[in-house]
Specification:
The complex is a heterodimer of chains A (421) and B (166). Chain A has 421 residues and is of the alpha/beta class. Chain A is built from 16 helices and 11 strands. Chain A has helices at 3-19, 21-28, 68-83, 97-100, 106-113, 130-143, 163-170, 176-179, 185-199, 204-218, 232-237, 293-306, 323-332, 341-346, 363-366, 374-386; strands spanning 52-58, 89-93, 121-123, 149-156, 240-242, 245-246, 256-263, 269-278, 315-317, 399-404, 411-419. A 5-stranded mixed sheet of chain A has the order 1-7-4-2-3, with helices on both faces. Chain A has a 4-stranded mixed sheet with strand order 8-11-10-9. A two-stranded antiparallel ribbon of chain A has the order 5-6. In chain A, helix 6 (130-143) crosses helix 16 and helix 10 (204-218) crosses helix 13 (323-332). Chain A is globular, with a radius of gyration of 20 Å. With 166 residues, chain B is an alpha+beta fold. In chain B, 19% of the residues lie in helices and 29% in strands. Classes of the chains: A alpha/beta (421), B alpha+beta (166).
Chain lengths: 421, 166
């Protein structure tokens, strides 16, 4: 046994730990959660300041006539009014304002538009999870002590562009080889869903149940893009987009904006943990199509930072850009043990009245998906749910989880918000 | 039998296609290799809403080739396709196509591609001739192609860092 074998053995053991981290969460949750291996050891809480949410606001999602600047200003100004604090840092995000609205230098542009040109600003972008990434940047700016109050604002305006063009712009987040074969986001999601169906992880009926549930929630959310419930028959009967995905499984193209003010002052609403996970841009490089490593890594990092396990989460906002992704994410984040999420959906455990309400806002499926605004809108919904302001769809919760997917799960985020008494 | 240009990592031995300069797993330059164009279907879909430059319905499959390389490819239809089924890959003008297609299928498939009419005619004729002379031979060691892979997971688990947990 030479040095090479030893190195291989060490690598193998390392892989084992990477393969089963969520099982570890499950076994250890409740009795002092301690993940076995995570490279972010060292960024201990003793070096970091706690980060609190001072205010959160969003615009209604949907087909909006306002400009991107106005949508972002609406959300930002409302959040600033509520926060009653002068921000000393600004994080702006939009996924592709250059293509959708022809604007660049966005941090300065939006900073000037909302009267904060004197505040140091930067723009953050990680495809469709840009909102969560911007929040992470704001989080880091405060945790590090660089700033005390940071305004995070994100928005997207794209309904004025034709659907094939929007599809083409969004598909630039896909690997060039895969894109050259006509792969769009629904196409890749169709491939993932087909593989998951073949494995028996869920059925087409379960996918439809997710869409029905989220539309039912959206019908009670005045900020949602779709405010009408749909039936199982309507979902199953809607036209195929990327076999086996149907129109009602897919999120709409929406306009909208969201804003969150973060602060170092304890406000009672703590940004308890944030984690990022990443994966190959090309889905053909991945060893598995039916689970997202990026989500798993993000969840582990977030729970480690928060120092509690998935069992404390009482409400979740999941990135259901395609209905089956909600089922995959519930297990990837550790909220359900492998193979249990489908039963939860069948039993109605994920409805507003259920054991763990998932996507009370309607999710991307019904609230809508305004790209960079989505990651922030999820956190806005959690803030409203935890502070009792989710009129018409209020659930009882003190800990909420938001999960955001960037690209085809290349750059994912898990955010934990906790109401501290 | 079609061979496909790929690249192999000198460190971990992973093969990717089309060839990449650097191994996606770690920053090591890859060396070019050729692999046989015969593999099993990992997943497939049919797009009815297609991006600019394509015509619906667009059939896309992900096929795993020897050595673990996976490629995207087009096809005539996915109706008879199943995950784990073995298919042959044919390459025309840098575009991969799966399955053993008939002459008529080839002509119509290439006709639907983007590009000028003369090029499309040339591709279609080229492919039809290829089919006629039956270039489509199995590799020597593989006279009886294995039946459909019953357990796809076993293939996945062989790979590096399976994020799979089910």
């Amino acid at each position: 046994m030479n040095l090479r074998h030893v190195a291989q053995l060490v690598e193998f053991i390392h892989h084992l730990q990477v393969v089963f981290p969520l099982h570890a969460i499950y076994r250890l949750s409740g009795e002092g959660y301690e993940p076995c291996c995570y490279h972010r050891d060292g960024t201990g809480s003793e070096n970091m300041r706690d980060v609190w949410i001072a205010a959160a606001a969003m615009t209604r999602f949907g087909r909006r006539s306002e400009t991107l600047e106005d949508l972002m200003a609406d959300a930002a100004l409302e959040a600033l009014r509520e926060a009653n604090r002068q921000p000393d840092g600004l994080v702006v995000t939009a996924m592709d304002p250059e293509e959708f609205v022809g604007e660049g230098n966005l941090a300065s542009h939006i900073g000037t538009y909302i009267g904060l040109s004197h505040v140091p600003g930067l723009r953050v972008e990680t495809a469709t999870s840009s909102g969560a990434a911007a929040l992470y940047a704001g989080f880091a700016l405060i945790a590090s002590g660089f700033h005390n109050h940071v305004l995070v604002v994100g928005g997207e305006k794209m309904t004025h562009v034709s659907t094939p063009r929007v599809s083409e712009i969004i598909s630039r987040v896909i690997d060039p080889h895969e894109r050259s074969y006509g792969a769009t986001m629904p196409a890749l999601a169709g491939l993932v869903t087909r593989a998951a169906l073949a494995k028996g992880l869920f059925t087409e009926m379960d996918m439809a149940r997710v869409a029905v549930k989220n539309h039912a929630h959206g019908a009670r959310n005045p900020y949602a893009h779709f405010q009408q419930p749909v039936t199982l028959e309507e979902v199953m009967g809607s036209r195929l987009i990327a076999d086996p995905l149907r129109l009602q499984h897919c999120c709409p193209i929406s306009d909208g904006a969201g804003a969150v003010v973060l602060t170092s002052d304890p406000t009672g609403l703590k940004l308890a943990g944030m984690g990022q996970g990443s994966d190959y841009l090309a889905i053909r490089y991945r060893s598995s199509l039916t689970g997202f490593r990026a989500t798993q890594d993000a969840a582990i990092a977030a729970f480690k930072m928060a120092d509690f396990g998935p069992e404390r989460v009482q409400v979740a906002e999941i990135h259901d850009a395609f209905a089956p992704f909600e089922i995959l994410a519930l297990e990837d984040t550790g909220l359900f043990p492998p193979g249990r999420a489908t039963r939860a959906i069948q039993n109605g455990e994920l409805t507003l009245e259920g054991r763990l309400p998932v996507n009370p806002s309607g999710g991307l499926n019904a609230r809508g998906h305004a790209l960079a605004a989505t990651g922030l809108a999820q956190v806005v919904e959690l803030v409203w749910q935890l502070t009792g302001r989710a009129v018409g769809r209020q659930v009882k919760a003190t800990v909420g989880l938001a999960h955001s997917i960037g690209g085809m799960a290349t750059n994912n985020w898990v955010t934990l918000v906790e109401q501290v008494a | 039998m079609e061979t496909i240009a790929a690249s192999r990592c000198p460190d971990c031995g992973w093969v990717v296609a089309p060839p990449a300069r650097v191994c996606p797993r770690h920053p090591v330059e890859m060396t070019p290799v050729e692999i046989s164009g015969y593999g099993s279907v990992l997943s497939y879909t049919t797009l009815t809403v297609v991006p600019e430059g394509f015509k619906p319905p667009l059939h896309i499959a992900v096929v795993e080739l020897p050595g673990g390389a996976r490629i995207f490819c087009h096809g005539k239809e996915t109706r008879a396709l199943r995950i784990g089924r073995r298919v042959a890959i044919e390459q025309v003008d840098g575009i991969f196509y799966f399955a053993n297609l008939g002459v008529a299928d080839r002509v119509s498939l290439f006709w639907k591609r983007r590009g000028a009419a003369p090029e499309r005619t040339r591709d279609a004729v080229k492919s039809a001739i290829k089919r006629f002379f039956d270039v489509y031979k199995r590799p020597s060691g593989e006279t009886n192609p294995p039946a459909e892979d019953k357990n796809q997971t076993s293939e996945e688990e062989k790979n590096h860092r399976p994020a799979e947990k089910r």
